[in-house]
Amino acid sequence: GLLLVGCSQEEQPEAQAPNLLGVSSIATIDGQPIYTSLFERYAITRLQKAAEDLSDNERTALIEELIQFYLMANAAEDAGISQEQDVVVNFELQRLQTLSRLVASRHLEANPPSETELQIAYEQNIERLSGVQYKARHILLDSEDGAAAVIEELGAGADFQELAVARSTGPSGPNGGDLGWFSADTMVPPFAQAVSSMEVGTFSEAPVQTRFGWHVILLEDTVDQEPPGLDAVRADITNVVEQRKIEEFLDSLRDTAVVVVEEPATSP
Fold this sequence. Notes:
Elements: H1 2-11, E1 25-29, E2 32-35, H2 36-47, H3 56-78, H4 85-110, H5 115-124, H6 126-129, E3 131-141, H7 144-155, H8 160-167, E4 178-183, H9 189-196, E5 208-210, E6 213-225, H10 234-255
Antiparallel strand pairs: 1-2, 3-4, 3-6, 5-6
Helix pairs in contact: 2-3, 5-10
């Protein structure tokens, strides 16, 4: 064994780069090593276990799986599959995505959001986190005339919930048109504008058109929502700051690179 190692070392180039996969292996296939480092990582991703915590059966099964991967991959290499354009393109995309995720993660590890940055982002988003909440019902109809007729009936004293059950084409119809509590920004703009201009206890004086059809709206109640404290939304605000940091990092990379976007080729 020592003699063989000595011979193999003599045959290697003097300035050979270190093998980043290591030197120890758990098996070989036609002399090709399956490195221990790869096996250890596979154990974590496959079974969420460290290699030293594997049972004998688990270790044997994982080694067999890796052997099968290598056999199939070697067959693909022999068949020239690894040199097919689609395969090369997919590998390159995977490389770009993997390295991008890693450099973004390490940039954030080296530049975590500070309390000051979190506080500033919180104050910038506080309006979105607060505001008026509305409780409303609606009756959805297919035509403006149908909505106008419903408004006339309501004006004559008809019950809104009963009309919603009888006339509404929307999914909330069977529940008397109940939409529950919502903020204006969760509704399509025409609906949100109509609700925000109404008084509690009133119904819309004119049909409200959205891409869903024609609405008659009853505003039942409103409440001013107090914004949550920073700690309550810390995770969301942290994501906002981290995204901003990645965007700034990308801007800095772009500023130091010469980027030329080619014009698309024109047809002759």
